[in-house]
What we know:
The complex is a heterodimer.
Chain A lengths: L1 E5 L3 H12 L3 E6 L5 H5 L12 E4 L5 H6 L7 E4 L4 H13 L5 E5 L3 H9 L3 E3 L1 H17 L1
Parallel strand pairs in A: 1-2, 1-4, 2-3, 4-5, 5-6
Chain B lengths: L1 E5 L3 H12 L3 E6 L2 H11 L3 E3 L5 H6 L7 E4 L4 H13 L5 E6 L5 H6 L5 E3 H12 L6 E6 L4 E7 L20 E8 L2 E3 L12 E6 L4 H8 L9
Parallel strand pairs in B: 1-2, 1-4, 2-3, 4-5, 5-6
Antiparallel strand pairs in B: 7-8, 8-11, 9-10, 9-11
Amino acid sequence: xxxxxxxxxxxxxxxxxxxxxxxxxxxxxxxxxxxxxxxxxxxxxxxxxxxxxxxxxxxxxxxxxxxxxxxxxxxxxxxxxxxxxxxxxxxxxxxxxxxxxxxxxxxxxxxxxxxxxxxxxxxxxxxxxxxxxxxxxxxxxx
Amino acid sequence: xxxxxxxxxxxxxxxxxxxxxxxxxxxxxxxxxxxxxxxxxxxxxxxxxxxxxxxxxxxxxxxxxxxxxxxxxxxxxxxxxxxxxxxxxxxxxxxxxxxxxxxxxxxxxxxxxxxxxxxxxxxxxxxxxxxxxxxxxxxxxxxxxxxxxxxxxxxxxxxxxxxxxxxxxxxxxxxxxxxxxxxxxxxxxxxxxxxxxxxxxxxxxxxxxxxxxxxxxxxxxxxxx
Lengths: 142, 225
C-alpha cells in the first residue's frame, strides 16, 4: 500500500517508520527539512536508503502534495501540529484527490467528535489521555 | 441581524464598526489576549476572547442564532474550519471567508466555502488596472452569479480598430459597457468607433475571455506606442 503522511513530528515519524518496516511504500511531507532527522533516528539505514520518500513543503500547497505522490496514495495521514490544518488537508485528500482512507490527528475531542460524525476517521490523543486518566483513577473513585 | 466576526485584525475591527453603526448586533472574537484587551475598550461586550475554532467558543457567542458568520483571521485553515462548522454544524445561512493566500482559493471552493474574498487578489486587480499597457485585466469576477467584468487595451492590429460598436459581432454573453479614451471613460453609442489604444470594459459570461481577447488584442500583447 502507498501511505502518505503529512507532518513528521513524534507521531508522524513513528508511524512512517513502522509502516515502512511493515513493507508499505511510505512518503512523508513536512514543511521543516530538519524533521527528516526524526525519520533517520534509531534506524540502521537512512530513510531514503530504506526506500522512504521525503518531500519538503506545506500541505496546503497542491504542488507539494502532488510531488509527495498524493495522486496514487491509498492512505492519507494528517499529523501536523495543527488540528485545523489536519482537518482541512484530510478533506482535500479525499474530495480533491479521491484518497480512499484519510486518518486525521485532532487534539481537540470536540472537533474530533463532530468531524468523525461527518465521515472523517479522526483520532484524538487528548480523548485517549482523558480516558486513561479516568481509568487510572478508578480505584480511588470506587 | 446578528453577525459573528472571527479575527479582530484591521478587517475584522472595521467590519464590526460598520455593522454596529448600521444597527446590527455583533460579536467580535479574538484569540490573542493582547489584541483582545486592545479591542475590548472600544467594543466592550461585543468583544470576546477565545479561539473560535473551538466549538464551545462559537456556542458561547451564540452561533446557533447567528445570521452571518465572517471569518477574517490571518490563517486560511482557521477561516475554512470556522466557516465549515458554522455552515454544516450550526446551519448558519450566510458565511463569508477571507482568503489570505490566493493559491488557497481552490480549497475554499472545494469545501463549499463561498463567498471567499481574497484581499490580495482585489489589490492585484486594482494595481493591474492602474498599470498602463497590461493587456487583459479582470476587474470583477462573481463566481456564484457567473458574471465577469474585464478590461482590455485595444492593440493597433486588432480587427475591431476603426469599427463602429454596432458593427462588432461579439459572441453571445459579451457586451461592451465602457470605453476609456484619453483618460476619461464613456458609455459607447452604436456609432462609437473603436480606436487603437482605447481601453474597453466588457461584461461577459465566464470562459469567454480568450474569444474576446482575439477581438481587441489578438496577439495577446497590448499595443506598442
